[in-house]
Amino acid sequence: MTIRTSRSLRGSIIQVVAALAVVTLTGACMPSEREVQYPPEREFDQTTAWQRLEDAAAEAIADLPDFPGFDVRTMMVTNCEQYGENGTEYVQLDLTYKFSEEVSQDQLVRETYVDLLREKWNASEYNVHRDEQRGEDPPYYSIEAQRPDGINYWYWAAGYVVFHIQSGCIKATEDGGNPPCPLPLGGVTRENDRATKFCDSIGMVYPGEEESADAIAPFEGTQPATVPFQSDGARRAAFDPSSSV
């Protein structure tokens, strides 16, 4: 007796057999048996990352003409993922500076700075891995560049113009959770510095406070408060022209 199978059935059988062969040959690489992979070694870890990001931000804006100053500073710290699960050995920092709503509408920061940063990062041979323009009146821009040390710049203009400086995955350290707060760039005031929950800001003098700093010392003789790094699990969203930070 001859048994005939349909073409689709034969195809299904072939696919199943092929899949079983792959599993047999690569069983040592199944997700449950793979060795944990770690990010590449970096030149810095969590203890010095924040200051390194501030220095990188200062380098980026140093040559921008008629710089109007930033309005808000924020910091985000998240755990790095390994095979889809959050780990605790590595973290990434995202330092963000935002221009004010009024300044964000200025062509200088929306378009001219994008062009200048693109030129600068290309000249420095940084890896410019995103360079997008969307929409019209006004157009939205998003440009990213990674430096050789792994720090990533992300400058985007949508509802607001925002500048991210990102560490990538770096080694977490036990004593990296309460660093002294670096002074914010661009004249950000104490009221608009939303990054201080991740650092020790006691004794830091903001722009405009210089005159009263010597006369008033309310924290003299006290110990710094311990405010450890926290992670809310948030990740950088894809470029969304309708977003506002």
What structural keywords apply?
single chain, 245 residues, alpha+beta, TBP-like, 7-stranded antiparallel sheet, 5 helices, 24% helix, disordered C terminus
Molecular structure report:
The protein has 245 residues and is α+β, with helices and mostly antiparallel strands. It has a domain at 46-204: TBP-like (2-Layer Sandwich). Residues 19-33 and 215-245 have low confidence and may be disordered. A hairpin with a 3-residue loop joins strand 5 (152-157) and strand 6 (161-166). Strands 1, 2, 3, 4, 5, 6 and 7 form a 7-stranded antiparallel beta sheet that branches. It has helices at 7-25, 46-61, 101-104, 107-123, 210-213; strands at residues 72-82, 85-98, 127-134, 140-146, 152-157, 161-166, 170-171.
- The DSSP helix count reads 5
Helix content: 10-25%
Q: How many whole angstroms does the radius of gyration measure?
A: 24 Å
Global morphology: globular
Region (Disordered): 222-245
Brief digest:
The chain is of the alpha+beta class and 245 residues long. It has 5 helices and 7 strands. It has a domain of 159 residues: TBP-like, CATH 3.30.2030.
Describe the secondary-structure layout.
Blueprint: H1 7-25, H2 46-61, E1 72-82, E2 85-98, H3 101-104, H4 107-123, E3 127-134, E4 140-146, E5 152-157, E6 161-166, E7 170-171, H5 210-213
Region (Disordered): 222-245
